[in-house]
Amino acid sequence: xxxxxxxxxxxxxxxxxVVFSDAVCVEYGEAAPVLKEAGxxxxxxxxxxxxxxxxxxCPTVKFQLVNYLxxxxxxxxxxxxxxxxxxxxxxxxxxxxxxxxxxxxxxxHPFFKRVWHGRHTLNESSQLLTPTARKRIxxxxxYWPREWTQPDNLRRCLNFKExxxxxxxxxxxxxxTVHAYKTYRYxxxxxxxxxxxxxxxxxxxSLSLLKVDMRLVNDxxxxxxxGSEQCLRETTQSNPDTSFTETxxxxxAVSIYASTPKKKSVYNTE
Length: 270
Prior knowledge:
By secondary structure, this protein is mainly β. The chain has helices spanning 2-13, 131-139, 151-157, and strands at residues 18-20, 24-27, 34-36, 42-44, 55-56, 60-67, 77-91, 94-102, 108-112, 115-121, 144-145, 162-171, 177-185, 189-191, 193-195, 199-204, 207-212, 220-222, 232-239, 244-249, 255-257, 265-267. Helix content is 10%, strand content 45%. The protein is globular. The relative contact order is 0.18.
């Protein structure tokens, strides 16, 4: 009995106290200011004056992790590491699955205290894109074509079944190795959205403290006017405790709010 109890306690202690976002946001890249042509000639990134840009910087796939002990002392995860793999089908008539590594911009965090965003760029070397899409980006000098800034067109460029994220690190409380993982499906991706800020500043006595609002872990907002999916619809019920208007996701990936909390100053700082 003692061995069973010890095993259960060890298993609980090895679980990282983190919360993953329910959705993955695909954020469009900004318009490329200039375009290098053959022979080194630099031209404006427009067909004519006043027309939309032809090319954009490549989009970014972003998921969010929140330290559940962010508002508690000594709740940090030391030497945290993120790893991501994607699953792909071998072919139409092949039921086997292939695992491919997905590169992140920042995959290490020496002192994970509050919020961490995992970012992957959909460029010519991205394993999440079809071979045709990667070649088109390469032929465009590493830029994203404008016609792909619509959600349906962008989704046609994606080529994967699931995204598996793993986190490992050392708990500052127990000094033991902890881990956690999250699996995202294709339908969990939201094109044209970005995560809302989670941090706010509060005053306690003479100190100003930066805290995390855990209610906003799955909050997303429309990025800009390039094109976002119509995946949200507002409900008629409001939440009087938080002064938010609740909305729900048609995809079922996230529950989000339409406005930011009142009587708080929200910061973008991670």
